[in-house]
Amino acid sequence: MAEPRRAPRLDQPREPRRLSLPRFDPESFGRWSEAIARALGTAKFLVYMSVVILLWVGWNTLAPSGWRFDPYTFTFLTLILSLQASYAAPLILLAQNRQADRDRLALEEDRRRAAAQKADTEYLTREIASLRLAIGEVATRDFLRSELGRLAEELEERPRKKRKPKQPEAEPDDHADTDA
C-alpha cells in the first residue's frame, strides 16, 4: 500500500531539488573513449575525413548556388571540424591517461617480479654455497677407499701378537685349616 502524500509544511524550508544527472560507468566510458581514440588515429579515418572535406568543398564550390549549403568561406565546415577536434582532444587525452595507468601498473608488477626473482636468486646462491661447503666436508668414495686400504695395510704389517692362553684361576683350597 502506498504511503499518503504529506502536505508541505509552510513553517519549514523545502528540500532543495537536486538535478539528477545520468550515471555512467567510468570503465565503460573509458573503453568507449579508447575505441574512438584508436579510430581517430588510423589512416582509414584520415582518408575518410579527407574525402568528406574534399566532397564538402567541391560541392560548395562547384554546385549550383541554390544547392550550396556552406558558401565560399566554409564557416559551417570550420565549425564542424572545430567541434570534432574539441571532442577528439579530451577523448584522446583520456585514452592516453588510461594507457599511462596501465603502463604504470605493468611497470610496478614488473618491478615486484624482478625483486622477487632477485631474492629467489640470492637465496639459491646462498644454498648452493652452503652445499659446496658441506660437500667439501663429506668424505668422498675415493677418500674412503684410500683410508680403508691404508688401514688394511697397517693391519697386515702389524706383527701378530701371540695370545697367551689364559690360566685358570686357583681354586679355593677346601682343605684349609678351619676352626672347628
User: Spans with pLDDT under 50 lasting ≥5 residues?
Assistant: none
The percentage of residues in β strands lies in under 5%
Following the backbone from N to C, one meets helices and strands in this order, namely: HHHH
Helix content: 55-70%
**General form:** elongated
Please give the structural blueprint.
Elements lengths: L25 H15 L2 H20 L12 H63 L3 H17 L23
Q: What does this protein structure show overall?
A:
The chain has 180 residues and is an all-alpha fold. The protein has helices at residues 26-40, 43-62, 75-137, 141-157. Helix 1 crosses helix 3 (75-137). It starts with 25 loop residues before the first helix and ends in a 23-residue tail after the last helix.
What's the quick description here?
The protein is mainly α and 180 residues long. It is built from four helices and no strands.
Keyword list:
180 residues; mainly alpha; 4 helices; DUF1003; DUF1003 domain-containing protein; transmembrane; membrane; transmembrane helix
